[in-house]
Amino acid sequence: MPPQEDAVEELAPPALYLPWPEEELAEGGGEGDADDPDAAPDATPDGASGEDRTFDPELTALLPVLRVGLVLEPSAGEFSVAEPFRAALEAGLRIPVMLIAYRDLPHLQRAIIRGAVDYAPLSASAYADAWRRCACLEPLVAPRGEDGATGWQAVALVAADARYRALSDLAGKRLATSGPGSTAGYRVPLAALREQGHDPETYFAKATAHDGPVAAALAVLAGKADVAFGWRPLGGGDPPTRGTLQDVAKERGGASGLRVVWSSAPIGNAPHTIRLGVPAAVRERIVEVLLAPPTPGEAAPLAISPQGFVPVAQADYAPVLATYPQGGDGTGRLRPLRPISP
């Protein structure tokens, strides 16, 4: 579909929506214009006192406007998808809510670190990286998966007829991984090995990288590796309809031929995060709004998460946080574990 240049103007007053603030997101840019990145704007958005919006004076005194960052393409009219979410937050919080679009996840991650937005949905890895760099945000809720899953686990997979029963049986064997940027297929399992006192670079006799968990699992079935890393959903359908085992089964047109010999601690789905500088009363109220069932006739936040949300906390991302060094280097780049030598 060709871009609709006037889509944003047709949806709502410009004060409620801001396109990509590219000049503030250039690589190597400053920390923002405000001396205090948690400081709220000087005024509420234009039109915030309209007849359809009645705000709570006590909450607006604490936070005049909640700035929500999302990865959106404004020219394609994607604000219309996010508008029910914005409207539900505004109606539930009774403070003005502004949407700010970012072109991709790295830009959005940098924005919440710098304080250009107050609230942002991130991936588990982007949240973990941001926390290690600034310790300035927390996860509030996470969307349920399409199958109702509330989270996931990294898993180690072996051939169904292999003699291996635990990860400890695989010392000195051949490992198939995804690339170093893969959370489930590389980072989380290898970090778990390190926490158990094993050096991944010497624990396995050989390690080869593949193009994703499915390719790594297929290498096990082809006899080229003894173990591969993948993932499985938690809290969804039984049996699961997603995950590496299901993807391999679809690829083969039958049973996966694999089984799980190790799984990580549970990990939450991609979290909706908020800066700690946002008053606690507002943060708590956001959780209440997003967890409440939608009221008939009112805007629902389910346009962002059709299956609803579940509450999450930092502990739900401990396996991913463990893959990042303490403290940050300020670059905003994800730092993988050291590669394993083949």
Automatic annotation (TrEMBL):
Residues 1-54 are annotated as: Disordered. Pfam families: Phosphonate-bd. Residues 21-39 have a biased composition (Acidic residues). SUPFAM superfamilies: Periplasmic binding protein-like II (SSF53850). This is Phosphate/phosphite/phosphonate ABC transporter substrate-binding protein.
